[in-house]
């Protein structure tokens, strides 16, 4: 320990003697380790994080897919992750291998609730709430922060409506007022009691950009949000998680659950269809670890985060090559010192240990700076990846795992890239101390130093090519003709059902909305729809054209008002759009897009034909909607969704045939508009406030769920692409900068080592331009060698990222050309500075050096 402390103290003295070297090393390490730690912060918080619950390792989810939100029908693959109420109760009863099974709503993000505390002058707010089984908190092993949590008695038919508030909501909206517990609220205009506050840090059963603020018993679903699917044995809406008993065999449990599911499905109306009966034997479930909760968000970001981690690792490798080069240069500069130490009896192992101690010290200090960089970088990454999200349960603060990752990374960096320079520097002989002033025409940098520069250049090219491809992909995606017009258009999401409106009351409400907003100066169009083009939402159904064979195909569908198509900028290309006369009691009509015509009619004229839903129990009901118009193929949901067949129905007409005995108007959720699309003649300042006041003047409970411009909604669909493009560009430039520094350093070191030789050449008549060419030739040769390695590596690596590129399958000439050009120019700039310095050497002074 005494010797180690001596080595550490000596190392710090060496750092103080060479501040330029020390600062360069620390900055290089900080950038390399910081970039990796910042990405790992997100990887840990999103992909590796467990729920803040008791013993998450024993939690098991029944299912393995990201299904949302309410499904019916069958799955051709037979893999199910979403279940009906009846199926949940059956599994809960027949799987004693679980201590308990809890159910939770899969699609709460699409069904916000309106909450108002009872009392005078209280304001209604649209917030996220979720419906869960009565044993939900018990399964997770949680205790309340205040009051009590949901119990089985709260989750039964006819029980008074109760709710548990999240801890963040309690603090942010009510300042931690203890009197909130037990107080009366109105949830979707229904009286309810807040019985408790969830524990601090608990954000629900999944990581989400907008976690629930209220937890309600699932038996209150139908009463509170009008969810007839809760009692429908064929409708799948719930995720299931449970805690397995010790010693349970998961393969056997999975097989048993699959058998029970097949038996349950065999009794359902869905599986009376002959096609469904063929896939019934394939019905199964996959049990997955539930400690991290429902993995919807993790699955959505997994590939991007892994890609960024690999890119950051390449940047660290470039930084490490720089560090190794700096240590080699420093080691060569200390050969005389080391030779003297060897002459005085120092063992080679002792010298190597001293140099390694200095290397590890530098990496440790670089780690501390890297953690600061990663903290700032993680905050920036969160802002880029999740803009405008305030309550997302992902923290940029370094966790113990992130700190451990950074420390391990720095230690490995210090040892791995400090060992070779230490061994080389320690290969000295005492006699060298006596020959230190002998005349020499040294050839400058070693082969290892040049190889490290070549490695940096090749990796920089790979990162530059990656950056170019992702930027090009983003530009292509953003410039797709979506057949939309976002100019001076605003979207206000609303929830009439949460404001207390029944299905039979929405038609006059919609007319009132149109009239009130048209009365605002500057408003041109007012459209209403169940959902809008570029929000992450989709409703789908099977389609059967009347009088024709069932093609076993489906289409997405949207309901809209008379001005809807004009409000989003979609053109009618054949027939007509919707009219104000297309009301509940008028003849049912539909408008389809061009892809729908292509798939179901080919080149025939679809106007006048009728269609309905396909599937079990739909025979004879294929004439539900008559096609009266065709619109162009507007992009909905995502530009990556090709061949997207769609049909559109009038907002207040039935979503199915009036002759369907299973159809009940009062249960038709599609009657509720989810969004207002407002076109104005010019931008209107403070328009959100105007919209909010207009809605409140109609009904105080009619609140804005979300407000944004149409352009913002479209831009939100490219957040991940924009994040990848920006970060790959940033990392590519960082790697290029480090490579340039490395090339400059090696070239400058070569010039210093060859100063006597250059002086002799110039004394013998060598022209200044020839000296510049000689030095530049050596620098550019290393850059060309890097290109020779980097080009095929870049071409090879594209196959691993092309799935994340939009309509790009390989490296194209412009991207490769630009990357090569940038690298060559950077190498030339890095080499020309020491080259000009070499050409300015005074031959007489150079010879006097010896």
Helix content: 40-55%
Distance between the termini: 42 Å
Number of beta strands: 23
Kindly estimate the percentage of residues that lie in beta strands according to DSSP.
Answer: 5-15%
The secondary-structure class comes to alpha+beta
Main sheet specs? 8 strands, mixed
Low-confidence runs = 436-443
Rough outline: elongated
State mean pLDDT (0 to 100 scale). 85
List the total number of helices. 24
**Radius of gyration, in angstroms, nearest whole number:** 34 Å
Short note summarizing the structure:
The chain has 850 residues and is α+β, with helices and mostly antiparallel strands.
Can you describe what's shown?
The protein is α+β, with helices and mostly antiparallel strands. The protein has 24 helices and 23 strands. Strands 3, 4, 5, 6, 7, 8, 9 and 10 form an eight-stranded mixed beta sheet that branches. A six-stranded mixed barrel has the order 15-16-21-18-20-19. The longest helix has 38 residues. The relative contact order is 0.11. About 1% of the residues have low confidence.
Blueprint (SSEs and pairs):
Elements: H1 2-17, H2 19-47, E1 59-62, H3 85-94, E2 98-105, E3 113-117, E4 125-127, E5 129-132, H4 136-139, E6 146-147, E7 162-165, H5 167-174, E8 184-187, E9 190-197, E10 214-217, H6 221-225, E11 238-244, H7 250-265, H8 274-279, E12 287-289, H9 296-333, H10 335-343, H11 348-385, H12 400-426, H13 431-434, H14 447-478, E13 489-493, H15 506-518, E14 523-529, E15 540-545, E16 553-560, H16 564-568, E17 572-575, E18 589-593, H17 594-600, E19 610-613, E20 625-631, E21 646-650, E22 675-680, H18 687-698, E23 706-709, H19 710-716, H20 719-753, H21 755-763, H22 768-797, H23 813-839, H24 843-848
Parallel strand pairs: 5-10, 7-9, 16-21, 18-20
Antiparallel strand pairs: 1-11, 1-12, 2-11, 3-4, 3-8, 6-9, 7-10, 8-9, 13-22, 13-23, 14-22, 15-16, 15-19, 17-20, 18-21, 19-20
Helix pairs in contact: 1-11, 2-9, 2-11, 2-12, 3-7, 9-12, 9-14, 9-20, 11-12, 14-20, 14-22, 14-23, 15-18, 20-22, 20-23, 22-23
């Amino acid at each position: 320990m005494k010797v180690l402390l001596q080595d550490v103290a000596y190392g710090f003295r060496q750092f103080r003697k060479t501040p330029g070297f020390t600062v360069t090393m620390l900055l290089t390490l900080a950038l390399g380790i910081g970039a990796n730690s910042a990405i790992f912060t997100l990887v840990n918080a999103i992909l590796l994080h467990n729920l803040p619950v008791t013993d998450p390792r024993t939690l098991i989810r029944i299912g393995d897919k990201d299904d949302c939100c309410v499904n019916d029908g069958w799955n051709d693959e037979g893999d199910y992750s979403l279940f009906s109420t009846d199926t949940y109760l059956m599994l809960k009863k027949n799987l004693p291998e679980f201590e308990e099974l809890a159910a939770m709503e899969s699609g709460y993000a699409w069904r916000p609730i309106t909450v108002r505390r009872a009392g005078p002058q209280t304001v209604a707010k649209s917030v996220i709430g979720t419906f869960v089984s009565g044993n939900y908190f018990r399964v997770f092993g949680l205790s309340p922060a205040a009051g009590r949590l949901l119990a089985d008695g709260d989750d039964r038919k006819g029980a008074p409506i109760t709710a548990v508030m999240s801890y963040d909501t309690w603090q942010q909206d009510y300042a931690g007022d203890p009197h909130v517990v037990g107080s009366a609220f109105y949830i979707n205009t229904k009286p309810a009691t807040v019985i408790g506050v969830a524990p601090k840090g608990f954000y629900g059963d999944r990581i989400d950009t907008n976690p629930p603020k209220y937890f309600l018993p699932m038996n209150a679903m139908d009463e509170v949000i009008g969810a007839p699917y809760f009692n429908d044995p064929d409708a799948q809406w719930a995720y299931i998680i449970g805690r397995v008993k010790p010693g349970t065999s998961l393969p056997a449990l999975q097989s048993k659950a699959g058998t029970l599911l097949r038996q349950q499905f065999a009794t359902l109306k869905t599986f009376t269809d002959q096609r469904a009966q063929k896939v019934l034997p394939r019905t199964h479930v996959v049990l997955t670890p539930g400690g991290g909760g429902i993995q919807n968000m993790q699955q959505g970001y997994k590939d991007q985060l892994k890609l960024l981690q690999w890119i950051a690792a390449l940047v660290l490798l470039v930084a490490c090559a720089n560090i190794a080069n700096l240590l080699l240069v420093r080691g060569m500069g200390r050969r005389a010192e080391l030779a003297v130490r060897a002459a005085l009896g120092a063992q080679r192992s002792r010298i190597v240990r001293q140099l390694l101690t200095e290397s590890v010290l530098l990496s440790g200090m670089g780690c501390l700076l890297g953690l600061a960089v990663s903290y700032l970088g993680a905050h920036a990454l969160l802002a880029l990846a999740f803009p405008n999200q305030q309550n997302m349960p992902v923290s940029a603060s370094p966790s113990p795992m992130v700190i451990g990752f950074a420390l391990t990374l720095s230690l490995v960096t210090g040892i791995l890239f400090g060992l070779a320079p230490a061994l080389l520097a320690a290969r000295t002989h005492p006699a060298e101390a006596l020959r230190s002033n002998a005349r020499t025409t040294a050839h400058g940098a070693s082969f290892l130093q040049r190889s490290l520069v070549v490695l940096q250049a090749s990796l920089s090219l790979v990162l530059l090519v990656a950056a170019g491809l992702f930027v090009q992909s983003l530009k292509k995606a953003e410039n797709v003709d979506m057949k939309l017009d976002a100019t001076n258009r605003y979207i206000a999401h609303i929830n009439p059902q949460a404001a207390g409106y029944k299905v039979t009351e929405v038609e006059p409400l919609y007319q009132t909305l149109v009239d009130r907003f048209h009365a605002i100066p500057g408003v041109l169009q007012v459209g209403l729809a169940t959902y809008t083009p570029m929000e992450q939402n989709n409703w789908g159904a099977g389609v059967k054209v009347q009088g024709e064979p069932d093609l076993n195909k489906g289409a997405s569908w949207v309901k809209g008002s008379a001005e809807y198509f004009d409000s989003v900028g979609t053109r009618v290309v054949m027939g007509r759009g919707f009219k104000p006369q297309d009301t509940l009691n008028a003849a049912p009509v539909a408008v389809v897009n061009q892809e729908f015509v292509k798939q179901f009619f080919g080149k025939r004229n679809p106007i006048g034909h009728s269609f309905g839903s396909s599937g079990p129990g739909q025979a004879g009901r294929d004439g539900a909607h008559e096609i009266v118009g065709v619109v162009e193929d507007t992009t909905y949901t995502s530009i990556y969704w090709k061949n997207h067949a769609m049909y559109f129905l009038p907002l207040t007409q039935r979503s199915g045939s009036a002759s369907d005995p299973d159809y009940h108007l009062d249960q038709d959720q599609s009657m509720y508009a989810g969004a207002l699309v407002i076109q104005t003649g010019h931008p209107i300042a403070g328009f959100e406030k105007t919209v909010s006041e207009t809605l409140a003047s109609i009904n105080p409970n009619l609140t804005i769920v979300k407000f944004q411009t149409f352009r913002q909604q479209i831009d939100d669909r490219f957040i991940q692409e924009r994040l990848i493009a920006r970060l790959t560009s940033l990392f590519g430039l960082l790697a290029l900068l480090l490579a340039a520094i490395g090339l400059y350093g090696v070239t400058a070191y070569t010039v210093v080592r060859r100063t006597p030789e250059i002086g002799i050449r110039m004394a013998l008549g060598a022209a200044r331009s020839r000296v510049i060419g000689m030095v530049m030739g050596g620098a550019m040769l290393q850059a060309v060698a890097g290109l020779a390695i980097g080009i095929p590596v870049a071409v090879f690596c594209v196959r691993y990222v092309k799935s994340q590129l939009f309509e790009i399958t390989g490296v194209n000439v412009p991207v490769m050309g630009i990357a090569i050009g940038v690298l060559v120019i950077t190498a030339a700039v890095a080499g020309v500075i020491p080259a000009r310095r070499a050409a300015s050497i005074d031959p007489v002074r150079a010879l006097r050096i010896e």
